[in-house]
Amino acid sequence: MITQITKGIKISVITSFEGTFFKNYRMHFAFGYKITIENQSKDSVQLTSRHWQIYDSLNHPEFVDGEGVIGKKPVLKPGESHSYSSGCLLTSPIGAMRGHYNMVNFTSTRKFRVYIPTFKLCAPFALN
């Protein structure tokens, strides 16, 4: 598990390799990840949007921006957490992801970023 804390918000990531398949005459590698966002601060916060940088060892980086996470904009009171699962496809067995969440502090009404630590995506057969 990879973890990082930014301004009292703890991000934990667990990854998994889901398998391979052919799509458009190319081999693809499917990876899953589960993220837990835990509010360890004294203020209520809301996740409003996300930014991802996806690195595939055979291609240029891909950047993904969007509202919330999997269709939700969770509000987290102090001590609460929110977990969700998602995934990505790579054209190589090795890659990585990192990014950030844009959040709002309800006490100060200030917007801030919570960084998602870099996590590796690696098919088990690609390990040395």
TrEMBL record:
Residues 3-128 form the ApaG domain. GO terms for biological process: error-free translesion synthesis. It comes from the Bacteria. PROSITE patterns: APAG. It holds the Pfam family DUF525. This is Co2+/Mg2+ efflux protein ApaG. It comes from Sinomicrobium pectinilyticum. The gene is apaG.
